[in-house]
Specification:
CATH architecture of the largest domain: 3-Layer(bba) Sandwich
Strand content: 15-25%
CATH class of the largest domain: Alpha Beta
Radius of gyration: 22 Å
Number of domains: 2
Shape: globular
CATH superfamily of the largest domain: FAD/NAD(P)-binding domain
Structural class: alpha+beta
CATH topology of the largest domain: FAD/NAD(P)-binding domain
Number of strands: 19
Number of helices: 11
Largest sheet: 8 strands, mixed
Helix content: 25-40%
Order of helices and strands: HEHEEHHEEHEHEEHEEEEHEEEEHEEEHH
Length: 412
C-alpha cells in the first residue's frame, strides 16, 4: 500500500485540482461587478452562477480573498435573534451552513456545539423567555435552562461571578462554528469553476455615474464597465457609499478578540454573557477564544488595545476562574458597521443598478450563505426577496426598524 500511494503521488497523471485559476487581466466590461472578496461577495457570485446562470461576473478584492472581516471574526453561527425577521433570516442561514461542505466538496469544518447565553437578572430571564418562544416559533431550536441544567452542561463555569450570579440561561442548540477561511475559499472555488472571475489586489477607487446608474467602476488596474454593482465590503461600507452620495446611518467601530495557547478539550458549548460583555469558546485546536463588545468610539482601523484586553479577560476569568494562568497567543480586531437598530442593510440603493450589502455589525459571518443567495436573487431579478425586504435602507426613513439591540453574544 505505501508503495502504491507513492507511485500514485509521483505519477504525471496525478489529478491535481487547482482551487483558483491563475490571475488574469480585467475584461473591459462585466454584467455584474461585486466589490469585496469576502464571504458575502463570493457567495453572491457563486449563487448568481449556480441558480441564475449569470457568469460574466467580476469579484474585486483590494487585498486577498477573505482577508477582511471574514478573517477577523470568531466564526460563530447562530439564529437566536430577537425579531421574527431576524430569526427567519438567520435560521435559513444555519440550515444552509450545515450542507456547505457537501455542496462544495470542501470541508468547512462545521461543528454544531450549541450556544449558552447567561442571564444574571430577573429582567434578562424574562427577555430570554420571550426570545426562546420567538425562536421556536420561527424554526430555531432554543430553550431555557435553570442553574442545575447549566451546571451539568458546563461543569467548569462559575455560576456566582462577583455581584452577578447566574439565574438561568438561553440554550441555543443550533449554535455552531466553522472555519471562516474555508467558507470563503469554498465559495471562491465553486464560483470560479462556473466562470466567475476573481481579481485580488484590485481596489475600487471611484465610480462613473450616468443618468442615475453606475456605468463603470474605476480601479487601480483600470476602469471596467458594468451592468450592475453589488457592494459587500464590511467595515468600509460607508466609505464606498460616500463616493456615490448614498447616505446611510452607519458608524464603524473596531471589534477585538484574542486567543490563548491550546488546551485539552474541556468546553464544548459557546458560552456568553451580555452582562459581563464577554463570550468564550474553545476551538477544535484547543485554543480558547475570547470576544466581547465593540470599542466605544468610531474608528476605521483594525488594531488591538491593552484596555480592551484587560477588561475582556477580567470578565472571562469571572466566568472561568481557572483560566487566569492561560497565556495569550494573539490578539486582533475587525471593523464593524453598526446601524441604529443593529440590523443589516440589504437591497436596493438610490441608484438603479447599485445593490447594498452593508451594516452587518458583529453578525456578518453567520449570514454568509443566505445573504449570498438572496443578494444573487435580487441582482438576477431586480426585486428584493421577501426574506430581506425588512432590511431595506428605506426603513430608516419610514421608521420601520428591525431592532436587534441586545441580540448579540455580548452587548454593544
Amino acid at each position: 500500500m505505501p508503495l502504491a500511494l507513492l507511485k500514485y503521488g509521483l505519477s504525471s497523471e496525478y489529478p491535481v485540482e487547482v482551487d483558483l485559476p491563475a490571475p488574469k487581466d480585467l475584461k473591459p466590461a462585466y454584467d455584474v461587478v461585486i466589490i469585496g472578496g469576502g464571504g458575502h461577495g463570493l457567495a453572491t457570485a457563486y449563487y448568481l452562477a449556480k441558480y441564475h446562470g449569470v457568469t460574466n461576473v467580476a469579484v474585486l478584492e483590494k487585498s486577498y480573498l477573505g482577508g477582511g472581516n471574514t478573517a477577523r471574526n470568531t466564526a460563530v453561527i447562530r439564529s437566536n435573534y430577537l425579531t421574527s425577521e431576524g430569526v427567519r433570516f438567520y435560521a435559513e442561514s444555519v440550515r444552509m451552513f450545515k450542507e456547505l461542505s457537501n455542496e462544495f466538496d470542501f470541508n468547512i469544518m462545521y461543528s454544531e456545539r450549541g450556544q449558552l447565553t447567561l442571564a444574571h437578572t430577573d429582567a434578562t430571564v424574562r427577555a430570554f423567555r420571550q426570545r426562546a418562544e420567538v425562536n421556536k416559533h420561527f424554526g430555531g431550536r432554543t430553550e431555557m435552562l435553570d442553574r442545575q441544567q447549566i451546571r451539568e452542561l458546563v461543569p467548569c463555569l462559575n455560576l456566582d461571578p462577583g455581584h452577578l450570579p447566574v439565574l438561568a440561561g438561553l440554550w441555543h442548540i443550533d449554535g455552531a462554528t466553522a472555519r471562516h477561511d474555508a467558507v470563503a475559499w469554498g465559495y471562491a472555488k465553486q464560483a470560479a469553476k462556473r466562470g466567475v472571475e476573481i481579481h485580488q489586489l484590485t481596489e475600487v477607487q471611484d465610480f462613473v455615474v450616468e443618468h442615475g446608474k453606475v456605468t463603470a467602476v474605476k480601479t487601480n488596474r483600470g476602469d471596467v464597465r458594468c451592468g450592475c454593482v453589488v457592494q459587500a465590503v464590511a467595515g468600509a461600507s460607508s466609505l464606498l457609499m460616500n463616493k456615490l452620495g448614498i447616505k446611510a446611518p452607519i458608524h464603524t467601530y473596531p471589534l477585538q478578540a484574542m486567543v490563548t495557547q491550546p488546551f485539552k478539550p474541556f468546553l464544548d458549548p459557546l458560552v456568553s454573557s451580555s452582562a459581563l460583555h464577554c463570550y468564550v469558546q474553545q476551538t477544535s485546536r484547543g485554543e480558547i477564544v475570547f470576544g466581547g463588545g465593540s470599542d466605544p468610539y468610531p474608528l476605521y482601523n483594525t488594531r488591538s488595545t491593552l484596555d480592551l484586553k484587560e477588561s475582556l479577560l477580567a470578565a472571562a476569568i469571572e466566568m472561568f476562574p481557572f483560566m487566569a494562568g492561560a497565556k495569550l497567543m494573539r490578539q486582533w480586531a475587525g471593523s464593524t458597521d453598526m446601524t441604529p437598530d443593529y440590523s443589516p442593510i440589504m437591497g436596493l440603493s438610490p441608484l438603479d443598478n447599485y445593490y447594498l450589502d452593508a451594516g452587518w455589525g458583529t453578525w456578518g459571518f453567520k449570514a454568509t450563505p443566505i445573504c449570498g443567495k438572496t443578494m444573487a436573487e435580487l441582482v438576477a431579478t431586480g426585486r428584493p426577496p421577501a426574506l430581506i425586504q425588512p432590511f431595506a435602507l428605506e426603513r430608516f426613513s419610514t421608521f420601520r426598524q428591525v431592532n436587534e439591540m441586545g441580540a448579540t453574544a455580548a452587548s454593544h
